[in-house]
Request: fold
Amino acid sequence: MWLKAMSSSFPVLLKPYFLCNYKTPITRFPKPLMASKTLDESDVGIFCYISQLPGFRGILKQRYSDFIVNEVDTDGNVVHLTSLDAPEEVVKTLEKSGRETNDNEIKSYTSEIESFRSLAGDSDAERLETLINQINSGGEISPIVLSPSSDKSHRTAMHNFFKENLKFLVTDTIDGPDASSKCIRVRLNSGGQNGRGKNSRKRKERGDKPFDSRGSEDWPEHVGKFLRFHLCKENKDSQEALGVIGKMLGIQTRSFGFAGTKDKRAVSTQRVTVFKVRASRLAALNDRLIGIKVGDFCYVKEGLLLGQLLGNRFTITLRGVVADSEDTVKASASALGRKGFINYFGLQ
Reply:
């Protein structure tokens, strides 16, 4: 009897499915010492293998890195993260997005910032000062998200402060880190300085045209409206990873489109789209993200929808493998590669 713990890694396209159409019984192998007490196949009514090979025993997903998932797009291409760099920007700085300020409006707003400091605290005041400096310098302008607050009256006072003192900025409320709190997002008013920008237009003034707060009037016609990128995440589910990215960008998680959610306990790579966000903004997040990387950016005309994929490619590492011989493991792996197997939901 050959009993030796080892690791075996091979790519597969589908998860397994055991059907008892064959009369080959499941051979009992000694459990490896590292395995914890779990159910056996016989405990859930599985008594034989689908093939006539003797089979072997191993531990699946002992580490999250033992389970690698790569999305397969509708053209059959396996999605990998190959580059973290943003491409040469084809979307020019949106010069008309509310930056038409008079000479007397380009100032430091020191007194306003100090008043805001007494209302919101030092950290939020510093965020506001950074945003105003970005506007004055004419550089890239990113929305800011203020500290979470569960006090609605305090949030109302914050909104009113911007309406009364900094009319070139607009605010809205987004979800906070927990169910009991909300955050205020501050961004440049794309409608100008008169407080009557597109964000304040009434429905009857828009007619049948849907409201779009994401700047569609300023996006160049020749550029796809969606940024598509590859998301690689470790030990996080898709919603969690996109929630972290969305919070850093100051946008809602629902702004992202994807073809399918991926396993949490895994290293997975998939395609994601987001509406009118420049690649340079996303690429700049890589230095701050933990367990998440984004890259392979390009602009496309349509966002991703659920189901727009052929499937997933899995690369699985089995640990603590126990078999009667090494040839048995090789024969099983060879048969797996040649014949595949039926989708399986059992002891998982």
